[in-house]
Every structure is written in structure tokens, then in C-alpha cells.
Amino acid sequence: MLGEETRKDARQGEEYMGYKLADIESALDPKVTIPTWMDLVSAYASPNETARRTHPPETFQYADHPRAALDLYRTEGSGGAPALIFFHGGGFKLLSKDDVAFGAPMFNAAGVTYIAPSYPLTPDVRFSELLAYTRQAAKWIYENAQALGIDRERIYVGGASAGGFISAYLLTTDWRDFGLPRSIFKGGMPLNSVFDARPLYLSPGWDYLSMSEDEVEALSPIHHLSNLAAPTFVSWAEDEPPLLAASSRQFVEALRERGLLAGAYVAPGRNHFDMVLDLTDPESALFRTMADMILAG
Questions:
Q1: Would you say 244 and 200 are in contact if contact means Cβ atoms under 8 Å apart?
Q2: Least enclosed by CB within 10 Å: which of 38, 118, 192, 245?
Q3: Phi/psi at 188 (nearest 5 deg)?
Q4: What separation in angstroms does the CA of 83 have from each of 2, 20, 221?
């Protein structure tokens, strides 16, 4: 891997989507554009606590790492329910499965089992290793679907922010390389994310990912759309960093060209951090669209 100074030199003069290297971070990172982001994230605490109290999850270990665990929130019924795997955000270095518990009550009420995985975080592991753990989570869920009471032919994957990238990465994985069918998902639902690892590689603010130049394309969902077989719904907030919104629009158009766009939605009056709380409102357009897509499958 390139040394730190050599890597910085290698990036000098590069641009991405018209943004110069010095401007990429401010155009991409919502923590830069929304200074009150910590207050917005702390608003997750109350609905998360309520969800875990009223819908106690079952916790399973899917790999040999302390953070390789997932919470399963079962919907009522005799089994064979559709499932949504929902990955948390946090810039690949913060948060956990506990921080997206808030989605469980509404999806359970709609008849959907809700699964929230944690995963090892950077910089404790490299970005490529983090993604490999999320792949293990999805594989474990698929292989254990019957024991978990879910229908493995109706597994959907989504996530917010970093979790949106993860879900897109899993959707564009060729699962035959791991002894499974080509696609293990019925549909995808990445929210307010970027779909190309290149701006993350270029921006010094994301150096903690420890991503090398030759990994960028391999880890980027936008470069592996030939593996995508599941209809995918994409959503982002009205108030997103401009580069993140542009990446979402690019992904939407790529899906449309392939006939795999299940829908696109820009959440009015929402920003990168509070949009996901629409999943606590059964009347919100975001929740209704996602739930209807799952139940229609």
C-alpha cells in the first residue's frame, strides 16, 4: 500500500464530478455541512430505547468478532415473513445496530421482520475488511433464514448513509463467488448515500478507511451494476451535501437504464441525519414506499 505522504501526492490535482480535491470533503461529508449533526443523531436515542423496550430483539453472532452481531426483531406470525436487513450509518467508524432499532416497530407492525446488524468499524479494520464482514452478515442471514422465521426469497437490504453504501455494495455482489445464488435479495433500499468509493479515497478526511487506489473500483457499487439483479429504491434528503445528492442521482439513472429502478424519492424538508427518522412514522412517504415494496414482493 502507498505510504501516507506518497498517497497524498498521488491525489494532488485530481477532481471528482467537477469538484477539486480541496472541495470534495465539504461537498460530500454531511458533518461538514450540518454543524449540529451530533444533536440530530442524539435524537435517535429515544425512539431506539422505545423500540428495544417494546420489541425486544433476539441477538445472534454471525462471525468471530465482538461487533459481528445482529438484532432480529420478529414480526408476528407463524414464520416465513419477509425481512428487511437495515445497516446503520456513522461514516464507517461510529454507531451500531442499537442506533437503528427505531425502524423495528413500524416494519414489524406491517408484517416485516427487521434485522439490524453491527459490523467492525474503521480504523480498527480496513474498509475492505468492514465490507467483508457485512457480506458475512448477509450470507449468514440467507443461510439461516428458515431458523430465523423468514422467507429467504423475500429478503430486502437497505441502510442509511454508510449503511446505504453497504446495502448497495451487497446488492452488486455476485453471490455465486460465495457459494450462493447470483442474487440473494428480493430488493434494495439504500438511503442518503454515495455509490462510488472514489471520492472517499480522494478526500483526506476519509483516510481512516485505509483504502488503496487499486481497491477503489472493486469496492464501488456503481462499477458493479452488472451483478445487480434486484429492483432497487433510492432515497435521499432535500438538504444533502451536493456531491452525495449527485452520486444518488447518478445511481438512479444507472438503475433506470438497466430497468432495475423501483423508485426514487427526495425527502422534502429533511437533511442527511433526520431523514431516517421518517421510518418511525407510518404515514411518511419514505416508510410507506419501503413497506409497500416489501409487502408487494
A1: no
A2: 38
A3: -130, 155
A4: 41, 41, 22
